Amino acid sequence: MTTYLEFEKPLAEIEGKAEELRAMARANPGMDVEKEAAALDKKAAQMLTDLYKDLTPWRKCQVARHPDRPHCRDYIDALFTEYTPLAGDRNFADDHAVMGGLARFDDRPVMVIGHEKGHDTASRITHNFGMARPEGYRKAIRLMDMADRFNLPVVTLVDTPGAYPGKGAEERGQAEAIARSTEQCLKLGVPLISVIIGEGGSGGAVAFATANRIAMLEHSVYSVISPEGCASILWKDAEKMREAAEALRLTAQDLKKLGVIDRIIPEPKGGAQRDRAGTIAAVGAEIGKMLDELSGKKRAGLISDRRKKFIEMGSKGLAA
User: Fold this and answer.
1) What is the pTM of this model?
2) What 3-state class would DSSP assign to 222?
3) For the domain 61-319, what is the CATH code?
4) Structural domain boundaries in the chain
């Protein structure tokens, strides 16, 4: 069953009418409704194109959060083989918001790490809606260190509203864990590539995405804070999230201009949720290209290029 976003309600009505007609025809075999249903399909297709032709930043936030978008586990299951999950931070616990392990990508051994949000109520609670605690970042640090020692490229899949801000997380050193994870990214002597597949929220995303190459899906978002959080701080009113989304420049298109990301991965018409298999295949193709670009580069060059990339970040957009 299709889940429609708020701005897609007119589309839901048209597609619903087409489905009702076809349901009536199935119940009454002599009824011919295909001509009317096809006309509605055509109208719906045009409306879908118009809706997604020029999405506002706030609507892109809604699409990035769509519950039917492919999540980290979907990408790992489809793109990686021989995936062997590794658990625990060897200190406190295993954080289910972060998943990762050894795998093969196009028969190349890699370490894959990502945020997992879950796909239904039970799994979302289990994965804490993709909001990692300190032990999640310490697990990621452990896996990145292992990849470095065994000379394995690291692939990260980012999809988080941000790090978990709970009392226990703060007591166990949330800020320090995020900083250490970011530091680990910077000092890796192996290729590190990152894909923002949904939300890239705050330091919780940067801790995985301080990479040699960063790609974003067309309708994903990447920002220092959520629009709601920004609006609450600046205007004391979370309802001003639309204005905040505009000001934050959190879209893939804005971030490409600023030099924060390297490439944009096109999404199917209507967003990743409309063609999950096609989206996953497109992400896989870009991961392969980015790994090829970094293949054969020496350790010192990878570290130097990564540090230079982040030192210069934003200068291109500011100069323009």
Assistant:
1) 0.90
2) strand
3) 3.90.226.10
4) 6-54, 61-319
